[in-house]
Structures are given as C-alpha cells and as structure tokens.
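Let's sit down with a protein and look at its sequence and fold side by side. Go ahead whenever you are ready, and we will take it from there.
>
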Amino acid sequence: MPTNPLSMQRITLHSSATQPSLDIGCAEIRQWHINKGWRDIGYHWVIKRDGTLEQGRPMHQTGAHVKGQNRHNIGICLIGGVNEHHHPENNFTTPQWQTLKTTLTLLCDQYQLPKSKIQGHNTLNPNTACPSFNVTKYLTLNLEP
C-alpha cells in the first residue's frame, strides 16, 4: 500500500556497508535488492561518495529498509560504511556530509519533523552497526533543534 508522502513521521539513516573504493549508487543497490526478491530499492534516497543525491524508491511508496518499521519512515542511505576488511567504519566524505545535512534539513521542514525523529538503523535494530556513525552526535553538531 502506498504511503501518503505528507504523512512521513521519521527518517532512518543507513550505510550501504560497502568499502570506500566501491563508488556505487541507486542503480547498483536497486539491482541488489531486486535480486533478493524485492520489488525495488528499499531506500528513498541514496547519497553517493561525491555527494550526489539520487532518488530511490518514490516517496509515495513505503520503503523496505527497516524490517517491520518502514511505514511512514523515510530511508536515506550513504554509500560506504565499512573498511576494506568489511568492518564498520565512518568513512563518509565531506560532500556526503554536506548533502546529508541539506537533505535532512529539507525533509524535516517539508514533513515538519523534529530532529528527534531522525535515527540510525542501529537504533531500531541493535544487531547492526549501520549506519557506522553516531547519529545522535551528528545531529547535535550539525542540525538546528
């Protein structure tokens, strides 16, 4: 069932869990997710290593990025998040951080969401390191209350 884009209630941040040398975007993630049997990419937005923002799943459709908690939840994925040995690592680029800040500000304004409604995937699923950075600390340092 499609989600009314005006009724988004939170934002969940993710990483692609790819090495910094792997410069991918929506097309590759979409294919990975379709290969898993999903109908489309699970995230609404993807931020590439160069800071380019790509739209994934349309905003009027429920995402597939947090098991059992996707309804009214915007999924944003930053490319990267693991080192060359596949261990979690905050290896995101300055352009990615800039795009994330701009995107979060715009989405929070559009959907009237306080920054307390932004969380990391690991907040909803403690069995994952995703998004490989401390979201609470990031929000405190980068977004207005």
Notes: Residues 5-142 form a domain with the Lysozyme-like fold (CATH 3.40.80.10). Helices lie at 26-35, 94-111, 121-124, 135-142.
